[in-house]
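Example record

The entry below shows one chain as it appears in the dataset: sequence first, then structure tokens.
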Amino acid sequence: MSARHPAVSRLRRLSREVAAFAAVGGVGVLVNLAVFNLMRNTTELPVVRCSMIATAVAIVFNYIGFRYFTYRDRDKTRPPREFTLFVVFSSAGLVIENGVLYVATYGFDWDTPLQNNVFKFLGIGIASLFRFWSYRSWVFRVVPAAGPVPAGGAGEGDAGEPGDIAAAGEVRIPGSRREPKSPGTAGGSGESGEPGDPEEPEAQEEAVGARG
């Protein structure tokens, strides 16, 4: 069960992201279609040009919704780069969306109001899949996580650390005339606690043997 837990958590986060993206995108679709039909019925502009204007209006709306709702917790440290990438990928989505309408209108002569709206909606759906992938992957980046700090504040093998010096001071050098200091002993050597006590003869012999 523990091995599945990270995958389940990622799936839940993705589900929440998709829901928030769909909420903003759904309102954006309504804005897009409303502007499209308004332009189509009140101007003499070609159908595809009306669609492109409507898409541009929806892109502005979507940026506000995605930045401050869907991806409000993502990295905000580079706004110019983020906005530039948003415009680039949104423009690619605009081409996809209106390319579908263009082919239907001028390639197959499907130019009734109902057909225009059907293929406009179909183009929005295809472009939305591209936008979802590009926005979450390139535009609204995840905030970089800080790396874990190693215990003791330094990596292994670092020279000159206070702990390394202290550890070296605990090593008894063969032939030394003094025992290592014990904790809590002022002048400290050996068990007697007397400073400067000479070693026992047995210890001296052991030291001589170690030097030999």
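Notes for this example: The helical segments are 5-42, 47-70, 79-107, 113-139, 162-169, 201-211. The longest helix spans residues 5-42.
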